């Protein structure tokens, strides 16, 4: 029988913590917990490290069990918003143009899903490559003619000092060993390279208002960062954060309601049931407590 195991703080390795939230949903099947990017709410015991303040799941399943779920996931719902995601990424890159590498740069996107960022990166003028554990999403990305490899930061074909930028769009919170991942990414970056981390920010007003019902507290999110802990984890792995900004997306209204229903947002299903289909297809810009951080190598 699979069992969750106690872990040390993923940021500072301390064993001392205070319990923030206990689980209220009894779901232990790893394929249900990690087999969909949306995850399941209410299944985690979340704790806060007394030493550094990081919030993380403890105990949790071992890495190999979690990774099996990610590999098997069929994220057709996520991929249904491909074009909207491409446009959202492109708009963000245009806003950050002065902070990002110039056109012609070589860029790696880790956890690239179906490749929306890669498509946006090509439009921006980058030479782009992607890593993704999901077999389904890799197939979808390859159908689009994108350079996507199945794997993780622990299993990839790239040489050291290859990339001008490495991106982690909503990925770091899924990793069991984030420090190890950022250390390995350092080897892939060129000396003046940029690290981009987009993450659900548990330090926002929205997160504090909703507490344990905050929509990003789901089974697939093993760690919850804010600006302070993102800055800290970058520092201890050899980076210096030089920019923070909120991340806005534009997605179909119907998709947003579907996600709200999955996350048990009050009245979401009631409203969705009465909305006409043409209304659901309207694209809506929104902010949901995601933050983009940019960092450079300290010794770059």
Can you describe this structure?
The protein is an alpha/beta fold. The radius of gyration is 19 Å and the shape is globular. The chain is 33% helix and 25% strand.
Strand and helix layout:
Layout: E1 17-21, H1 30-34, E2 46-49, E3 55-57, H2 63-72, H3 76-79, H4 82-95, E4 106-110, H5 116-124, E5 127-132, H6 135-143, E6 148-150, E7 163-169, H7 178-188, E8 189-200, H8 205-210, E9 223-224, H9 227-236, E10 239-252, H10 253-262, H11 268-274, H12 277-280, E11 283-297
Parallel strand pairs: 4-5, 4-7, 5-6, 7-8
Antiparallel strand pairs: 1-2, 2-3, 3-9, 8-11, 10-11
Helix pairs in contact: 4-5, 10-11
List keywords for this structure.
alpha/beta, Rossmann fold, 12 helices, globular
Overall tally of domains: 1
CATH H-level homologous superfamily name: Vaccinia Virus protein VP39
CATH topology: Rossmann fold
Give the helix level as a range of percent.
Answer: 25-40%
Distance from N terminus to C terminus (CA atoms, Å) equals 47 Å
Note the beta-strand portion. 25-35%
Unreliable segments of 5+ consecutive residues: none
Mean pLDDT: 92
From the spread of the alpha carbons, the general shape counts as: globular
Order of helices and strands: EHEEHHHEHEHEEHEHEHEHHHE
Radius of gyration: 19 Å
> Strand order of the main beta sheet, please?
6-5-4-7-8-11-10
The CATH class designation is Alpha Beta
Brief write-up:
The protein has 300 residues and is α/β, with parallel strands linked by helices. It has helices at 30-34, 63-72, 76-79, 82-95, 116-124, 135-143, 178-188, 205-210, 227-236, 253-262, 268-274, 277-280; strands at residues 17-21, 46-49, 55-57, 106-110, 127-132, 148-150, 163-169, 189-200, 223-224, 239-252, 283-297. It is built from twelve helices and eleven strands.
